TrEMBL record:
Keywords: Disulfide bond, Glycosidase, Hydrolase. It is an enzyme of class 3 (hydrolase). It comes from the Bacteria. This is Alpha-galactosidase. GO terms for molecular function: alpha-galactosidase activity. The keyword Transmembrane helix does not apply. Belongs to the glycosyl hydrolase 27 family. It comes from Bifidobacterium pullorum subsp. gallinarum. Pfam families: Melibiase_2. It catalyses: Hydrolysis of terminal, non-reducing alpha-D-galactose residues in alpha-D-galactosides, including galactose oligosaccharides, galactomannans and galactolipids.
Length: 467
C-alpha cells in the first residue's frame, strides 16, 4: 500500500453535520448514500461521513450534553447508538452500514474526538491488550473546551498509544475508510496527531485497507506546520466551522491564498464543509432551511474551493435538496479542477473605490486566481490539455464591470501571450439560478484582456485553451 494512493485528489463527499448536527440516523445516512451513488458518484462524490456523537443516545440539536451516557464497549471504545443505528447491535458497529455503502461504490467515515471518554476514566476501564487502565493514561490538563465527552491522553504513557491502536483497530474492522478527528489543531496537539497516524498505519497494515485522516478544527493553523501535517494526515482544516453566510466565505479567500502553494498530491488544506442545499434540519446552528447564500455566492464558494484545491464535503441533506443544488454539485468542472490543476495561486487582490480620492467610496475587492491545467495523478488526461483556469471574483454588493486591468497574459504567461486562445465558461449549462456568465476575450496579440461583468459576490470561472 502506498501512501501516495490515499487522497490522491482532494476528497469529495457528504458530511452529516450541517444537516443533522449530533443526531443523524442510519436511515438518513443510507438515504444520502443511495442518492449520492445515483446522482453524484459519476461527478466524483464518493465519501460519506457520520459526524460527532454517534455514540450518545441523548444527542440533540443545538449543542452537546454534559455527562452524556455514552455507549462504550468493555474497553471504553465508542459504539454506535443502537436506537439511531439499529444494524450496529450485537457488536457489529458500523460494519453493516459500511457494507451497504461499499456496495454502492462509496466510502464511509466517522467523526471522532481526541482523547478518551470521561466515562471510561471514571469507571477505570482496561486498555485493550495492556495491563493499564483508562485512569493511567488520561490527561486531565488537556481537555477539549467545547465538547465535554472526553479527557485528553498523556502521550508520555505507553498506554495512550495502545488506546488509539485499539480504537482504530475497531474502526478498521468495521470497514471504515475515513476518520475526521476533532480537537486536534486548535491548539495544535502534535503528539496526539502523530499517535493517531501511527495507529492508522498499524490498522492499514493489519487489514489491508486505506484510511484517510482528516484533522479539525483549523482556527489560526500556521503554514509552519505543513511538513508535519503532510507526514501525518491527508486533510487538515484551515478554519473554524463555516456556515451559509457571505462573511464566512469571504474570510476563506485569504486563507486559501495562504495555503494554495502547499497543496500537494495526497495532502490537502481543507477550507471546511460546503453549507449547500437543505441544511439545519437538526443542526448546531440555525433552523431548517435551504442554504442562505445567493446562487452567485454559491458559485463563488465552489470556484474558490476548487481553485484552492480544497476537499469538497457538502453538508446539505442530498435527497431533500433542490434540483439546482444537485445540478451545481454534479458540475464536472469541480472534480476536473481539484484533481487536474497545478500552480494554483491568487494573482490579483485589489480594493476598488468608486472614486480614487474618496476613501468612503469603497465598493469591494477584485480577486483573481489562476492555475495550469494538468493531467490527474491517476493518469487521467486533463480536459484542457495545455490550457489554464482562471476565476475572477468580486466581493462588492453591486455588479462590477471589468475594465482593461486583467490582461490575458497574466493568466496564460508571458511565453504564451502571443498564442491563440479560446475561452469557455466552467459553469456553462449549469442551471442553478445564478447570473449567466458575461465574459470574453477582447483585443489583439499581447494587448488582449478578459472583459465581462461580475455579479455581486460572484465569480467568472473560465478555462483558457490554446487553439
Amino acid at each position: 500500500m502506498s501512501a501516495a494512493t490515499k487522497a490522491w485528489r482532494p476528497p469529495m463527499g457528504w458530511n452529516s453535520w450541517d444537516s443533522y448536527g449530533t443526531t443523524v440516523t442510519e436511515a438518513e445516512v443510507l438515504a444520502n448514500a443511495r442518492f449520492m451513488a445515483e446522482h453524484l458518484l459519476d461527478a466524483g462524490w464518493d465519501t460519506l461521513v457520520i459526524d460527532i456523537d454517534w455514540y450518545d443516545p441523548t444527542a440533540r440539536a443545538h449543542g452537546y450534553n454534559e455527562n452524556a451516557p455514552l455507549i462504550l464497549d468493555e474497553y471504553g471504545r465508542q459504539l454506535p447508538d443502537p436506537q439511531r443505528f439499529p444494524s450496529s447491535v450485537n457488536g457489529r458497529g458500523f460494519g453493516p452500514i459500511a457494507e451497504q455503502v461499499h456496495a454502492l461504490g462509496l466510502k464511509l467515515g466517522v467523526h471522532m474526538m481526541r482523547g478518551i471518554p470521561r466515562i471510561a476514566v471514571e469507571n477505570n476501564l482496561p486498555v485493550l491488550g495492556t495491563t493499564y487502565t483508562a485512569r493511567d493514561i488520561a490527561d486531565l490538563d488537556h481537555v477539549c473546551v467545547w465538547n465535554p465527552d472526553n479527557y485528553g491522553l498523556n502521550q508520555n504513557h505507553p498506554g495512550a498509544q495502545a488506546w488509539y491502536d485499539a480504537q482504530i483497530d475497531q474502526f478498521a474492522a468495521w470497514g471504515l475508510d475515513f476518520l475526521k478527528v476533532d480537537d486536534m489543531q486548535t491548539p495544535f496537539h502534535a503528539d496526539e496527531i502523530a499517535a493517531y497516524h501511527r495507529a492508522i498505519a498499524k490498522a492499514e497494515a493489519k487489514y489491508g485497507r486505506e484510511i484517510t485522516l482528516s484533522l479539525s478544527p483549523g482556527g489560526w493553523v500556521s503554514t509552519g506546520y505543513v511538513d508535519f501535517l503532510r507526514g501525518n494526515a491527508e486533510m487538515w482544516r484551515i478554519s473554524d466551522d463555516l456556515w451559509d453566510r457571505w462573511e464566512d466565505i469571504y474570510q476563506q479567500f485569504a486563507r486559501l491564498a495562504r495555503w494554495a502553494p502547499f497543496q500537494t498530491t495526497g495532502h490537502w488544506a481543507d477550507a471546511d464543509m460546503l453549507p449547500l442545499g437543505h441544511i439545519g434540519l437538526r443542526a448546531e446552528r440555525g433552523d431548517d432551511r435551504d442554504c442562505r447564500l445567493t446562487p452567485d455566492e454559491r458559485r463563488s464558494l465552489l470556484a474558490l474551493w476548487c481553485m484552492g484545491r480544497s476537499p469538497l464535503m457538502v453538508g446539505g441533506d442530498l435527497p431533500t435538496s433542490t434540483s439546482q443544488t444537485i445540478v451545481a454539485l454534479a458540475n464536472p468542472a469541480l472534480r476536473e479542477v481539484t484533481a487536474g490543476s497545478r500552480n494554483n495561486h491568487e494573482t490579483v487582490r485589489e480594493r476598488i473605490f468608486a472614486s480614487w480620492d474618496d476613501e468612503n467610496s469603497y465598493r469591494g475587492e477584485l480577486i483573481v486566481w489562476a492555475a495550469d491545467a494538468a493531467d490527474w495523478a491517476d493518469g487521467t488526461m486533463s480536459a484542457h490539455d495545455g490550457g489554464h483556469y482562471a476565476a475572477l471574483f468580486w466581493t462588492g454588493d453591486d455588479a462590477y464591470e471589468l475594465g482593461r486591468n486583467i490582461e490575458l497574459q497574466s493568466i496564460v504567461g508571458l511565453d504564451e501571450r502571443d498564442g491563440r486562445w479560446t475561452l469557455s465558461d466552467l459553469f456553462a449549462g449549469i442551471e442553478d439560478g445564478a447570473t449567466p456568465a458575461d465574459v470574453r476575450i477582447e483585443g489583439e496579440g499581447a494587448d488582449r484582456v478578459i472583459r465581462g461583468t461580475i455579479p455581486p459576490h460572484g465569480v467568472l470561472w473560465i478555462a483558457l485553451d490554446p487553439k
